[in-house]
Amino acid sequence: MAGRFKNFLMMQALLFVVGSAQAADISLKSSDVKSLRLSIYNQNLALVSDERKAVLNQGSNSISFEGVSAQIKPETALLQADGLKVIEQNYEYDLLNYENILDKMVGKEVKTVMTNPDTGKNVFDKAIVLNNNDGNPLLQFSYGVESNFPGRIVFEKIPENLRAKPTLEVQVESRDGGNKNLMLSYLTNGLSWNANYVAEIIDDNNLDLQGWVTIVNNSGTDYSNAKVDLVAGNINLVQSNLSQPRSMVPLKAVSFAMNAADSVVSDGMSAQQVDEYYRYSLPFQTDIMDKQSKQVSLMEIEAVKFKQIFKLKSPMYVAFNSYNDAFERLHPSTVYQFENISENNLGLPLPAGTVRFYDKKSALFLGESNINSIADGEKFELSVGKSFDLFASGKIKNTKKISDKSFEADVEITFNNAKSSNAVIEFEQNFQGSVEIIKENFASIKDKAKTLTWKVEVPSKGEAVLNYTVRVVRN
Question: 164 pLDDT band (50/70/90 cuts)?
Answer without folding.
Answer: low
